[in-house]
TrEMBL record:
Entry's Gene Ontology BP terms: virion assembly
InterPro entries associated with the record: Gag_P30, MLVIN_C, Retrov_capsid_N, Retroviral_Gag-Pol_poly
Top-rank lineage group of the source organism: Eukaryota
Protein name, per record: Murine leukemia virus integrase C-terminal domain-containing protein
Signal peptide: none
Pfam families: Gag_p30, MLVIN_C
Gene3D superfamilies: 2.30.30.850, Human Immunodeficiency Virus Type 1 Capsid Protein (1.10.375.10)
Domain (Core shell protein Gag P30): residue spans on this chain: 14-57
Recorded GO MF terms: endonuclease activity; hydrolase activity; nucleotidyltransferase activity
Sequence ranges of Basic and acidic residues compositional bias: 13-32
Domain named Murine leukemia virus integrase C-terminal: residues: 90-145
Length: 177
């Protein structure tokens, strides 16, 4: 795939700028950016190639180019993933109290709604009691647990699911079955 075909959704000036920058990043034998036009044109041709995929030579050439691209990209990806375990994406835990950001704020309405108690978390999303969809962790902020009224704190009950013994149903105790 050429740079021009991968940028077909870009505007022509942006496409040209991307192609110029990509051509500057071609590495030579010394693993440094090269000025050799043959290497640059081999990596990023200015015209679309006319490949005949029915001939063995063209197929072999395509596979060799794919192998070369793989050999250049794979060490960078490997180094990226071997840097260690990723950091904990957020500090929220089940049981924490949070305010949820209001995206369609009415006049004189607070920007944050809540507080809500957090029920479950994933690395990027939170499930809070009282809001059906999951909420991205960047759309919440912690609430002061001491400022939450005692009347607001629900008691929780867990009940086994009647169809699946591995499931538990969590609900506030004041709600009917």
């Amino acid at each position: 795939m050429t740079v021009s075909s991968s940028c077909r959704f870009s505007s022509p000036p942006k496409r040209e700028r991307i192609q110029v920058e990509a051509r500057k990043s071609v590495l030579g034998e010394d693993k440094q950016p090269t000025q050799n036009p043959d290497l640059i044109n081999a990596a990023f041709p200015l015209s679309r190639p006319t490949w005949d995929y029915n001939s063995a030579e063209e197929l072999l050439f395509s596979l060799q180019m794919l192998q070369r691209a793989h050999e250049q990209v794979w060490p960078k990806l490997k180094a990226l993933y071997e840097t260690g375990s990723p950091p904990d994406p957020h500090r929220y835990r089940p049981g924490d109290w949070v305010y949820v950001q209001r995206h369609q704020q009415q006049a004189l309405q607070p920007r944050w709604k809540g507080p809500y108690v957090m029920i479950m978390t994933t690395p990027t999303a939170l499930k809070v009691h009282g809001i059906t969809p999951w909420v991205h962790y960047t759309h919440v902020r912690p609430a002061d647990p001491h400022a939450v009224l005692k009347d607001f704190v629900p008691e929780w009950k867990s009940q086994p699911d009647k169809d699946n013994p591995l499931k538990l149903r969590l609900r506030p105790s004041h709600l009917p079955r």
